[in-house]
Q: What sequence folds into this?
């Protein structure tokens, strides 16, 4: 399958490379790491050129500063966790390697398991050793190849939190390959959608998740909006958090993130209620004033109403009967009601 | 007990192992990791000595090493003595017939290493030589030792090829396996029995080592 694509990663950003199996995601990652030699093209990290077919240049993988976390972790089975990490510290004097490896293991919360071999570690622990080893080279880019796919959901959540904490400390870009759009929505600032070797959509997660005209996105996501949000206020006495979003302030159930944290929330289209005015006596916290942007009929009797709130588009799934009763028409005013519990972070 | 034959067998075994080790490492790794045209043919060629009757191998080696052959003539003009019916000729023959015993376990040892583990090593900044020394060798070690132990044990017991190429010259080509045959021929069952027991114990120990090591290969890669 031919790969034909081009993209640039900015320092410190997390980019999701999303696509179905066989779309070429892993090949893209392997090309950057130097494990696969493309027929033609150019790969550069900052001022360092790693591959340039026109100049006949191919830098061997061990001379590229690329950190790669493998899907199957690929730890060295005969070495302890410490030696696994130290193996990637060849650029340091020998005497400093063990201490640096211990520090890296501590940073992924494995400080007390440094003497264990991979066979004595759980899947999640192995993944974190793999991450510490990838970081050991002080990489120019961190490549994550479906790092969570081999792990249980319960193990993934703390690892997501670990990755979110890591990105704040890391200067290099992170390229996350996954076929789980929720994972992209949770972790990535930007997403590249790969299909049959080509990028069919790219942009911030919110706008790409709205591209339900692209089959792979429609299939991978429940209809709804993904909004970028900033934690504005914690209301501990009410167990609520106020988020600032492009659609205005939103109240949701307590979010475990510090004030000012930037994250994304998902609002499923079937959880959005439409009204012609703000009603009284409801449990709903969020009443958003907007205008109807479009009404698209779905399966029999159901319509998807796109509501423009601020600069955000909120899809709402309602019956065609409700559309008729409220007299909704493109350009007309409408109130979107969103329950606090419907506002959640993806992949939780 | 023919101690001279015993010593000669040990010497031949060690020399065969020493001569074959670099070849087995190179060829075993090549067959494990590279795909090339004619690889199936190369693997069949490596296995050939397992199937051919030793007398057939011995016969062809005799033809190839004899005074009339370029190899035999070259050896004789260089060192002033014939290659056949000498220790050097015996060693050469021993190395050739032991190729499958050494190469195949080494190849299995390298094949047992996950490709992603080797890739992870190079992505971690290890040069190809460092990957070989620090990752591949320790992981393929059980296979390598198995190959060398099998080679050693098989050399001690080789009979047909030794008899064809080396004859039975005391101190030069009479190995312990040949000595047993000689003793039986002269109705000295007691001496034959002692030497047979020695060979039996060596074989049992060798199999014990290789079995233990092959289980270790399995354990490392659950």
A:
């Amino acid at each position: 399958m031919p790969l034909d694509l081009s993209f640039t990663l900015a320092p410190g950003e997390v980019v999701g490379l999303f696509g179905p199996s066989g779309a070429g995601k892993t090949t893209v990652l392997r090309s950057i790491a130097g494990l696969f030699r493309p027929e033609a093209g150019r790969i550069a990290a900052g001022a360092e050129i790693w591959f340039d077919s026109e100049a006949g240049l191919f830098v061997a993988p061990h001379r590229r500063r690329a950190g790669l976390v493998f899907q199957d972790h690929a730890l060295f089975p005969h070495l302890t966790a410490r030696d696994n990490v130290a193996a990637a510290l060849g650029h340091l004097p020998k005497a400093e390697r063990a201490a640096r490896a211990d520090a890296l293991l501590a940073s992924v919360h494995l400080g007390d398991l440094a003497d264990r071999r991979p066979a004595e570690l759980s899947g999640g622990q192995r993944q974190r050793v793999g991450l510490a080893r990838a970081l050991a080279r002080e990489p120019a880019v961190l490549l994550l190849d479906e790092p969570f796919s081999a792990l249980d959901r319960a193990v993934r959540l703390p690892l997501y939190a670990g990755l979110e904490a890591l990105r704040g400390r890391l200067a290099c870009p992170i390229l996350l390959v996954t076929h789980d759009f929720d994972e992209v929505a949770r972790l990535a600032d930007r997403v590249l959608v790969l299909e049959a070797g080509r990028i069919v959509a790219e942009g911030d997660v919110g706008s790409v998740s709205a591209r339900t005209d692209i089959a792979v996105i429609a299939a991978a996501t429940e209809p709804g909006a993904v909004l970028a949000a900033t934690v504005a206020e914690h209301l501990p006495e009410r167990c609520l958090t106020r988020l600032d979003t492009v659609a205005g302030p939103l109240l949701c159930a307590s979010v475990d993130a510090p004030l000012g944290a930037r994250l994304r929330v998902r609002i499923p289209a079937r959880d959005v209620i439409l009204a012609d005015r703000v009603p009284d006596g409801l449990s709903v916290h969020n009443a958003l004033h907007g205008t109807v942007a479009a009404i698209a009929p779905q399966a029999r009797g159901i319509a998807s109403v796109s509501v423009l709130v601020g600069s955000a588009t909120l899809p709402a799934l309602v019956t065609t009967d409700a559309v008729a009763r409220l007299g909704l028409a493109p350009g007309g005013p409408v109130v979107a009601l969103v329950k606090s519990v419907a506002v959640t972070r993806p992949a939780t | 007990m023919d101690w001279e034959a015993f010593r000669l067998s040990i010497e031949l075994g060690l020399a065969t192992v020493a001569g074959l080790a670099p070849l087995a490492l190179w060829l075993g790794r090549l067959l494990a990791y590279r795909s090339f045209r004619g690889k199936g043919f190369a693997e069949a060629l490596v296995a050939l000595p397992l199937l051919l009757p030793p007398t057939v191998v011995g016969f062809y080696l005799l033809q190839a090493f004899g005074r009339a052959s370029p190899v035999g003539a070259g050896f004789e003009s260089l060192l002033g003595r014939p290659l056949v019916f000498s220790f050097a000729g015996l060693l050469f023959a021993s190395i050739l017939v032991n190729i499958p015993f050494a190469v195949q376990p080494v190849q299995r040892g390298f094949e047992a290493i996950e490709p992603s583990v080797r890739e992870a090593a190079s992505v971690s900044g290890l040069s190809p030589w460092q990957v070989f020394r620090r990752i591949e060798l320790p992981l393929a070690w059980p296979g390598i030792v198995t190959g060398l132990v099998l080679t050693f044990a098989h050399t001690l017991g080789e009979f047909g090829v030794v008899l064809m190429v080396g004859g039975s010259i005391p101190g030069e080509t009479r190995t312990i396996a040949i000595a047993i045959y000689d003793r039986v021929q002269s109705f000295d069952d007691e001496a034959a029995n002692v030497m047979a027991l020695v060979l039996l114990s060596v074989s049992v120990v060798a199999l014990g080592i290789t079995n233990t090591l092959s289980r270790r290969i399995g354990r490392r890669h659950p």
